[in-house]
Amino acid sequence: MSKVNAGILGMGHAYPSGILTNADLEKMVDTSDEWITTRTGIKQRHKADADEYTSQFAVKAGKKALQCAQISPKDIDIIVCATTTPDQILPSTGCIIQRELGCENAAGMDLFAACSGFIYGITMVESMIRTGQIRYALVIGAEVLTKYVDYTDRSTCVLFGDGAGAAVLGPVPPDKGILATKIRSDGRYEEQLYAPGGGTRYGTTHETIEKRMHYFKMKGNELFKIAVRSMADISAEILEKAGVTIDDVDLVIPHQANQRITDAVAQRLGVPPEKVYSNIAYHGNTSSASIPIAMDECIEMGKIKDGTLVLITAFGGGVTWGASLIRF
Ligand code: UT7
């Protein structure tokens, strides 16, 4: 078989119609539009209703990605759902998506790497496609984070939103597709961003619920510094690995955690603001969904077209981080 790379053949995204604005949050906790805007860049975020759940948005995004790639659901070999907020503990959200999309020949699984999940997912399937083990993969970052947000904690509740972004990956010529990719983690920072309740360590009890242990907790300003350093360093590493410089890159799409993090990463990498995409103002932080949503928006806007060289980089709880360099 001739040499191939793994590339993105089509993308899609979806999010709930419900919107939570900064003005809404001002009525719920001691915060202000001014604080949220200047400290994070967020103006609004999409929020699922009580009866909406992760796989619904993943399926919508996945369907669009398949249509865009013009690939039949039956041709998908694996579905990787990167999520921190699965529909339930068992079975995996990946299996629910597999059923709903009619991907009858696919394996389905969840991948748990917080905000870096999409990059972890494409890194995993990249080598499977490149080595010929599989032909087509569907990687979806999907989250309903707002169900794990403590709306009495102003330090976290203003940040997170819901949505899903999907990519169909398959073989492309060797000068295109994923040119370099790398993922990392450091579990020493477990308690910088975590939700300890509800697992096998602290199973759900009245006490864990009263202590609000099932909600996200974050030490934001400590994470901020690690996030900037990790994303900038791993991006520089993969550029070097691919033998290109930052000037060769047409578009940088960082995980949308905070506009100030995005600005600081761009500054460290020496990228001008017009080459950096941001949608945090209207989506907030959607964790594993943030990069594929942003990429698909860029495709729709014509910022990504045939030949565009895109650098994506993410950082999240774990802590996890990663970067990929992709030629469309
Ligand atoms: O996606 C996964 C990765 N996520 C991250 O890496 C997140 C990284 N961290 C951040 O984005 C920022 O640290 C935050 C947006 C979470 C917080 O911004 P900050 O500039 O680091 O604020 P801070 O936590 O240092 O807090 C500054 C002040 C504190 O008040 P005092 O102690 O100075 O009186 C907070 O209590 O701001 C206060 N504060 C708020 N005030 C109004 C914290 N949250 C709020 C709020 N509204 N929502």
Task: Describe the model.
- This protein is α/β, with parallel strands linked by helices.
- The protein folds into two domains: 5-174, 3-Layer(aba) Sandwich (Peroxisomal Thiolase, Chain A, domain 1), CATH 3.40.47; 179-186 and 216-327, 3-Layer(aba) Sandwich (Peroxisomal Thiolase, Chain A, domain 1), CATH 3.40.47.
- The chain is 34% helix and 24% strand.
- It contains eleven helices and 13 strands.
- The protein has helices spanning 22-26, 33-40, 54-69, 93-101, 117-130, 154-157, 206-210, 220-242, 259-269, 280-283, 290-301, and strands at 5-14, 19-21, 44-46, 78-82, 107-111, 137-144, 162-172, 177-185, 193-194, 217-218, 251-254, 309-316, 320-327.
- Strands 1-7-6-4-5 form a five-stranded mixed β-sheet, with helices on both faces. Strands 8-13-12-11 form a four-stranded mixed β-sheet, with helices on both faces.
- Helix 3 crosses helix 4 and helix 8 packs parallel to helix 9 (259-269).
- The longest helix has 23 residues, at 220-242.
- The protein is globular.
- The two termini are 22 Å apart.
- The model has no long low-confidence stretch (mean pLDDT 97).
- The structure holds oxa(dethia)-CoA.
- Oxa(dethia)-CoA (UT7) binds at residues 31, 35-36, 39-40, 115, 154-155, 158, 193, 220-221, 223-224, 227, 257-258, 285, 315-316.
